[in-house]
Write a structure and sequence with these properties.
Blueprint (H helix, E strand, L loop, with lengths): L3 E7 L14 H17 L13 E2 L2 E8 L8 E11 L3 E11 L6 E13 L1 E3 L5 E3 L4 H4 L7 H4 L1
Antiparallel strand pairs: 1-4, 2-7, 3-6, 4-5, 5-6, 7-8
Length: about 150
């Protein structure tokens, strides 16, 4: 059962600020890229149109610590680790490592983030209600070993 996933992204010009470094907010977009890719690797999507009422995964906590800048055309590995799994919530740890342009090997850690999402249904009026994570998804996900989260 998966407890981790790795995604790779290149820093695009539109991801950078006036100083030429990746804008802090884009780290959250990159975390979301890894999260969505993780679900797809399990055969699911964050959009589940076959479920009635419709389901979603709003964020209830997000944070990121920035250690080194990323610049235009840098390639970064986003390593998602499942930190915690409860009945209705999932928490992830993300490690960002800049990839060596010559070898593609993951190098130094440039940022570390976390994200907690809650499984909800959406009522017609927009009301959300926390619900258990569907068994078909929950059965596929396990929490990463403590030594990997350290």
């Amino acid at each position: 059962m998966p407890c981790e996933f790795k995604a790779t992204r290149r820093v695009e010009f539109s991801d950078t600020d006036m100083a030429g470094i990746m804008h802090y907010s884009n780290f959250f977009r990159f975390m979301e890229t890894a999260e969505h890719s993780f679900y797809r690797a399990l055969g699911h999507s964050v959009v589940m149109p076959d479920i009635d009422p419709p389901m979603g995964w709003p964020r209830v906590h997000a944070e990121c610590d920035y250690l080194k800048p990323l610049r235009f055309e840098d390639t970064v590995e986003i390593h998602l680790l499942v930190k915690e799994k409860k009945t209705r919530t999932l928490s992830y740890l993300f490690r960002f490592r800049k990839l060596d342009p010559a070898t593609g090997a993951a190098g130094e850690e440039v940022a570390r983030g976390s994200l907690t999402v809650v499984c909800v249904t959406h009522a017609p009026g927009g009301q959300m209600k926390a619900v258990p994570i569907p068994a078909s998804l929950a059965e596929q996900i396990q929490v990463a070993p403590a030594e990997r989260l350290a």
